[in-house]
Amino acid sequence: MAGMWRNVVVFCLVAATALPSSLLVAAAQATNTTATTPIPVVGVKTGIEVNTGKRPARQNINKLYARGGPQWDLYILALSALQAVDEADELSYFQIAGIHGLPYSAWNGVGQVQGAPFIGYCPHGELLFSTWHRPYVVLFEQTLVSHALEIAGQYPPNVAPTYLAAAQTLRQPFWDWASDPRLPDAVTTANTTVNGPTGKLTLRNPLYSYRFQRPAVEASFGGPLTRYPETIRCIGQGGNNATESDHLLGSVAGGLVSMVYDVFTRTKTFEAMAYANRNWSSFESPHNMIHVYSSCDGTLGHIDWSAFDPLFMLHHCNIDRLVAMWQAIHYKDAMFNTTGVSTGEFGTPPGTHITADSPLKPFFDGNLNLHTSKSVADIRVFGYTYPELDEDEPTTPDGLADHVRAQVNSLYGSDTQGAKHLSAPAQPKPPAGGKDDYPPPPPPACYYTAEISLDRAQIPLPVTVNLIVHGGLVLGHMSILALPCEGTASASLPLREALLGGNLSLPDMTPATVIPFLEQNLEVQISTSDGTDIPILTAPSLQLAVQDIGFVPRTNDSTFPRFGDTTRFWAMPVRQYDGC
Ligand SMILES: *[C@@H]1O[C@H](CO)[C@@H](O)[C@H](O)[C@H]1NC(C)=O
Ligand SMILES: *[C@@H]1O[C@H](CO)[C@@H](O)[C@H](O)[C@H]1NC(C)=O
Ligand SMILES: *[C@@H]1O[C@H](CO)[C@@H](O)[C@H](O)[C@H]1NC(C)=O
Ligand SMILES: *[C@@H]1O[C@H](CO)[C@@H](O)[C@H](O)[C@H]1NC(C)=O
Ligand SMILES: *[C@@H]1O[C@H](CO)[C@@H](O)[C@H](O)[C@H]1NC(C)=O
Ligand SMILES: *[C@@H]1O[C@H](CO)[C@@H](O)[C@H](O)[C@H]1NC(C)=O
Ligand SMILES: *[C@@H]1O[C@H](CO)[C@@H](O)[C@H](O)[C@H]1NC(C)=O
């Protein structure tokens, strides 16, 4: 099966090529502790207020770290304990991470199906991307908190109740990289000190890396990462080099925040938001950039290995948070009802028809049915919330949507899209049907996006495609991960902020100015994660267009900019960037 797959696609699945049969036996043995009953993914049930049903919020890692105290102690100790669980155990850090990519083995009794490619379970670049990762983070969270509860019980009686309460309300933290693109301080030191049950304790920092228990076995996974006994970031810069990660993340910070804001404000349907998709911006696009830029050429950037880096769950918890916030705003369209086609994963053959009722393998619900996008649509069933979704104040869905829009504006909105420094035009009068029936807004301002697409099979992945003007100003980035490794990769990248912030001396932002400027100046660079450039001639499928959309900036802090329904596409020449 694997051999057949290999013959089809040139650059695909390098790791699979190198995987020896001895490892497959080892991996199979490792999963042979499979319980007869599947492990259900139900979330954490502790810490929920009895009277109100109020669920604890997953916290920003930087805030949780800054606050310190029992919850931080327990988070670190629980993560450390989880990483110490025997890799043969299905609820070990190793095996939970192993669901995503390598070692391509059955988990929770859900095996590889006939015709399925030899990769992990995770769907990328397809409809199930955002819903699949939701129960995945929940599984990790419920396992983590089970360790925290156990550890809390070991503290001396005078502090045990405090620690127990802290464990009960502990949830998986998130890394909000669009607000602060630097690596969280907590993940950058090799050792860390906490208050353990028997006093102050310095231990290997479980957020810094995961150290493989069987380096000899894990080394046979194949590929350039096998030389390292632990997960690693920025290999070329000395390994786990936070300075270099921060440098790279800083270079794309503007792109990250404008992409996130663009998804919130411009994407109208769940299926468009849910995965990197033609002519729509989705959270998967900035998600890809974090995989590539925070690790340079390291573990997180290689999709087969990425889930082993402790940054993975912090990153995916944040993606889940962005999706949950989007759902609260678009509560009438909180789940897709369209269909798609799978590119194929460990438990799903390529070509499978995908709907919101398709199984999210290998995750079972409390009734031991496989979860589906519908069963994970509402985060309330999993016993957590997010700080931005605090439902104390708003009592109606519209009230909550306003509240979340205000949070999005304050976290990710820029002045140029808001009312702060612009005199916004008068709102059209609402027709009788109510505010949803406004006529399309007049186009007093123009919004621009770059529409990029290319055939993945033409280039060695992962890569980043940069759109550059004036010999160095990057207007947009599209990172493409190694999976799926065939089919069309596409993204819709917001350009307005970069055009305005770039000191380009454009006399105005009208299409008559901006489109000719881009036609004459836009250049394309395709870079691998180790910084090598690939000539654009390698990818003749690469297409580039610029879209202009009329829009009205937001008028106050709880509204979003309004976009016109009519847009125009301008084909752009694909020109090689050749340095400054
Ligand atoms: C491992 O699992 C396979 C397939 O489920 C089973 O046939 C075999 O007996 C198991 N081996 C052990 C040692 O449990
Ligand atoms: C981390 O702690 C270990 C002992 O627990 C020590 O050997 C090592 O030098 C420390 N590493 C750093 C970078 O401080
Ligand atoms: C880490 O990366 C920075 C560049 O961001 C570099 O100056 C420094 O030498 C690197 N450190 C090591 C140990 O290689
Ligand atoms: C998507 O964008 C391309 C240009 O890149 C355009 O030709 C096509 O019509 C667009 N599709 C839709 C559905 O808007
Ligand atoms: C799908 O969802 C959209 C948005 O909520 C809705 O307008 C449409 O009627 C739905 N279609 C079907 C077939 O349910
Ligand atoms: C913008 O460009 C002008 C003239 O080209 C220059 O004087 C100024 O320093 C630039 N500002 C920034 C922030 O680069
Ligand atoms: C913001 O603007 C909307 C639409 O114009 C309006 O309904 C809402 O009351 C305003 N909110 C505030 C806080 O001014």
TrEMBL record:
<feature type="signal peptide">
    <location>
        <begin position="1"/>
        <end position="30"/>
    </location>
</feature>
<dbReference type="Pfam" id="PF00264">
    <property type="entry name" value="Tyrosinase"/>
</dbReference>
<feature type="domain" description="Tyrosinase copper-binding">
    <location>
        <begin position="309"/>
        <end position="320"/>
    </location>
</feature>
<feature type="region of interest" description="Disordered">
    <location>
        <begin position="415"/>
        <end position="442"/>
    </location>
</feature>
<protein>
    <recommendedName>
        <fullName>Tyrosinase copper-binding domain-containing protein</fullName>
    </recommendedName>
</protein>
<dbReference type="InterPro" id="IPR002227">
    <property type="entry name" value="Tyrosinase_Cu-bd"/>
</dbReference>
<keyword id="KW-0732">Signal</keyword>
<dbReference type="GO" id="GO:0046872">
    <property type="term" value="F:metal ion binding"/>
</dbReference>
<dbReference type="InterPro" id="IPR008922">
    <property type="entry name" value="Di-copper_centre_dom_sf"/>
</dbReference>
<keyword id="KW-0560">Oxidoreductase</keyword>
<keyword id="KW-0503">Monooxygenase</keyword>
<keyword id="KW-0479">Metal-binding</keyword>
<dbReference type="GO" id="GO:0004497">
    <property type="term" value="F:monooxygenase activity"/>
</dbReference>
<dbReference type="Pfam" id="PF18132">
    <property type="entry name" value="Tyrosinase_C"/>
</dbReference>
<dbReference type="InterPro" id="IPR041640">
    <property type="entry name" value="Tyrosinase_C"/>
</dbReference>
<dbReference type="InterPro" id="IPR050316">
    <property type="entry name" value="Tyrosinase/Hemocyanin"/>
</dbReference>
